[in-house]
Structures are given as structure tokens and as C-alpha cells.
Design a protein that fits this description.
single chain, 252 residues, mainly alpha, three-stranded antiparallel sheet, 13 helices, elongated
């Protein structure tokens, strides 16, 4: 079985131009050519491309990737073990960062009515007011912002614990659906997207479907939100965005 450059680009979610460049620099040269001279990639080529993309995702420059892959003493198992170790370290760091960002941007827009001691108890060592100024600049003129600020100012320590626990449970169930291979347009995924919208409405501000889809797009466009959801489960930000969009279409 062999594949065209267009097929491989679609599989790997890279551009044809990227594959041409990898060929030109000798990083990934296709194993065959068609009768018309077009590039044809086999399964071994796809395995090498996967390893390349793993290392690129980890921030390795192309020159270093080439050295690592062409090391005569390294086997595929060694590459996988090295990548697993690097990815595990990166995930651990992202989870710590994402938890702090989510606490600041989702659990508290403005005006959280807690003592310093209660803030540390609920939010840990992270300051939940870290992004308050940014939130005010971006959304301060909106009714949603004012409503969120009014609610936040009235919440107690136990209220915030409940809100955070509900959000974490919802994210776990979304991740479980993604792990099970569910389509974001499935009934189960759309139902959880609707539950996510209800969680926002109950705890923060009125969230009609148009606003909910905008939030879904922000979860993918803003790397801080993406980092939070993808730390729960890689790909969860996009999965949630797509489920939100599908649910809006179903409801509207």
C-alpha cells in the first residue's frame, strides 16, 4: 500500500508544501514514485513522519530531528520511550499552568468575595485575580461581564468549591467520551455541550447559543484555554468546540 503526497498531508494534518520541504532537505524522502513521477509514501514513511511530528511538537528544530532519527544506534522503541518521557514532563507542566489559568479566567472574572485565607484554600497558591484586568479590558462593557461580576461578588468559599467540582466533573466526562472515540456531533457529546452551557448560565452569566459558540472558538484560539482543556485530555479543546457548535445547530 502506498499513498500520494496529498493523502499523507491529510492523514498527518500538514501541508503538501511541508512534505515537499522534508523531502528536499532529506528528512523524509518518499520510498517510491508513480509512473508519472509523483511521490508515493509507504507505511514505513508514515511511521517516520509520525516520529518527526512528535519531535517537532516538542520543539526540536529540524536539524536535531534528523540527527535523532538517523542515529544508527537508536531503534523505534527507543524513540517512543524518549518521546513519552518528554511528553509526560511537558504535560505535567501544562497541567499546572492550565489549572491556574482556568481558575483565574473561569472561576473568577471579577470581584471574588473571599478573604486571602479562603482564596488560598479554594484556589491553591495561584492568585484568582491574575487576569481580572485583562477580563475587564476585553469584556468590561458587556452585560455578561457585569452579571458575572455581580455573581462572583456574592459567592462564598463553598460556592466556589462546588462550581469548580462541577466543572471538573464535566470535563472528565467529556474526556471519557473523546477517549471512547465518540463523534463531537453525537447525541452524548451534544448533551454534554448543553450541560456545559447550563453550567455557565447557572454560575456565571446568561449564555445563549450564539455566545456559547463564540466561547467554543475562544477555547481553541486562546492558547491558555486550549492548554487547560488539552491538559485534561489532548484534543479536548477542539472536541468541546465542535460539540458546542453541533449542539447550537441542533437547538437553534
Amino acid at each position: 500500500m502506498s499513498y500520494s503526497v496529498g493523502q499523507v498531508a491529510a492523514f498527518a494534518k500538514v501541508t503538501v508544501r511541508t512534505l515537499h520541504h522534508y523531502d528536499e532537505i532529506g528528512l523524509l524522502s518518499p520510498s517510491g514514485r508513480s509512473s508519472a513521477g509523483h511521490r508515493r509514501y509507504d507505511d514505513a514513511d508514515l511511521d517516520r513522519l509520525q516520529r518527526i511530528l512528535f519531535y517537532r511538537e516538542l520543539g526540536f528544530p529540524l536539524e536535531e530531528v534528523a540527527v535523532l532519527l538517523d542515529d544508527p544506534d537508536a531503534d523505534p522503541g527507543e524513540h517512543l520511550r524518549r518521546q513519552h518521557s518528554l511528553l509526560s514532563d511537558r504535560i505535567a507542566r501544562l497541567q499546572q499552568m492550565a489549572k491556574a489559568v482556568e481558575q483565574a479566567m473561569e472561576a473568577n472574572r471579577m470581584g471574588i468575595n473571599l478573604t486571602p485565607e479562603e482564596k488560598f484554600e479554594v484556589f491553591g497558591s495561584h492568585d484568582p485575580d491574575q487576569y481580572a484586568e485583562e477580563a475587564e479590558q476585553r469584556w468590561g462593557g458587556t452585560e455578561a461581564y457585569r452579571e458575572s461580576a455581580r455573581r462572583a461578588a456574592s459567592y462564598t468559599k463553598d460556592d466556589w468549591k462546588r462550581i469548580m467540582a462541577e466543572g471538573e466533573d464535566l470535563n472528565r466526562r467529556l474526556a471519557a467520551l473523546l477517549d471512547a472515540g465518540a463523534d463531537p456531533e453525537s447525541e452524548q457529546a451534544m448533551d454534554l455541550a448543553e450541560e456545559h452551557r447550563g453550567w455557565i448560565e447557572r454560575n456565571h452569566y446568561s449564555c445563549p447559543y450564539e455566545m456559547h459558540t463564540c466561547l467554543g472558538e475562544m477555547y481553541v484560539a486562546d492558547e491558555r484555554f486550549t492548554a487547560f482543556y488539552d491538559a485534561v485530555r489532548p484534543g479536548l479543546a477542539v472536541f468541546l468546540r465542535d460539540a458546542i457548535n453541533a449542539n447550537a445547530v441542533r437547538r437553534i
